[in-house]
Write a structure and sequence with these properties.
The protein is mainly alpha-helical. It has 8 helices and no strands. The relative contact order is 0.09.
């Protein structure tokens, strides 16, 4: 890849297509395009594929090299990675109180928890191309419980990302 930079745009298109995202290299911000072209890719094509997976799930370009073991405990060991969750919760709470739309605590907690659970599981399933055994392992849940969540939230592997819902 280091010597074939011209292959990066079509590979990016291919990897987004594999993830069911209708995004092309040319749709990415110019800064992201430039960083993808300039990067040295120590892991070759797989490194690019992993970068695109991380970008698709977080909308943040992460050009750090990760080990093949992507267990949740290794990536969240120091707690700093949860800061974005703290910020999001603070914004939700402040907005709710500011708008005087205070809901019963247990109802609000259940709604937020269910929405997070559904979105998180859905993204991880797409990231792992619906390899449910790998997803269950990564999430630290049983295969059976994963299937219950898929049923609970009516998830369908054939469903495209929300970008297809142009109402």
């Amino acid at each position: 890849m280091r010597s074939r930079k011209e292959d990066i745009p079509p590979l990016v298109d291919f990897f987004f297509n594999q993830l069911d995202y209708e995004i092309k290299f040319s749709d990415l911000p110019e800064e992201v395009q430039n960083k993808l072209i300039a990067y040295s890719y120590p892991g070759n094509v797989r490194e690019l594929q992993n970068i695109i997976k991380r970008y698709a799930s977080s909308n943040t370009l992460d050009l750090t090299t990760h080990t093949m073991d992507t267990s949740v405990t290794k990536h969240f060991s120091n707690g700093n990675e949860y800061r974005f969750i703290d910020n999001a919760i603070n914004e939700i709470v402040e907005s709710t109180i500011k708008n005087k739309t205070i809901l019963p605590l247990l109802d609000f907690k259940e709604k937020i928890s269910s929405k997070f659970e559904m979105e998180y599981v859905s993204h991880v399933l797409r990231n792992f191309k619906w390899d449910k055994q790998s997803v269950a392992t990564q999430l630290g849940i049983s295969y059976r419980y994963l299937n219950k969540l898929i049923t609970k939230y009516s998830m369908d592997r054939r469903a495209k990302s929300n970008k297809d819902d142009k109402s």
